[in-house]
Amino acid sequence: MVVDDSPFQAGQLCLLLNSQGYATVEAHSGREALALLEKRIPVIVFTDIMMPEMDGYQLCLAIRASEETSDIPVVLLTSLSNPKDVLRAIECRADYFFSKPYNEEYLISRTADIIRTLHLRQAKTSGQEMVVVFKETSYTLKPDFQRIIDLLISTYEASVLINNDLLRTQRQLSEKLLEVETALQRIKHLEGIIPICMYCKQIRDNKNSWHNLEQYISEHSDALFSHGICPECYNKAIGEYSAVRGSHDEPGHLS
After folding, report:
1. Residues 41, 27: contact at Cβ < 8 Å?
2. Which residues does 192 contact at the CB level (< 8 Å), separation at least 6?
């Protein structure tokens, strides 16, 4: 059973579970879920926490209150953003947390584990209720240690997944930053208006000093130079060379 006041999100999860061979039923409120539970008992219940009228915690308490449904594993779908979430989940005797947005591969894997564990779960332990106070709020906890352990393990695993995603994102950002820094080092932008002498083509820097064009570019970028001659200069040089050879060939010229 998937319980979510968002038909779209409930439908998405049902489609994912259906793709793995699970039969599913949707409920879009806590009260609708309880009505469906009176007709048929599911193997596992996935419920969103933030729902109007009856939230996921209240639904879980109602499931635990009925002898017919008390042993159904209840998975809370939420974002783990506050330690109070864990305490309230223990208080209502939920079994597992799956963080939203959930990792589909992880959810499928853990669902199979939950169903396998269901058949191996020992009888509930008996004992007095425990009271925990956190930030001036009192929580009454049942000493159902098997569920507490399951819940804490799933909470830890969800946190590890989130942390791994953050580390992967951080690593990708670091790689991109390194690429940007490398590019900046190679470019070293030549910003602003650069004065160039119209005769000798030297460049004046911001300290009013003049530099050879090649020297200036080398100092302000990682560009490397190879030397050649453009066609226009080549033709000009050939013309000057021919003129000089012609003057050398004139009668009376001493080599």
Report:
1. no
2. none
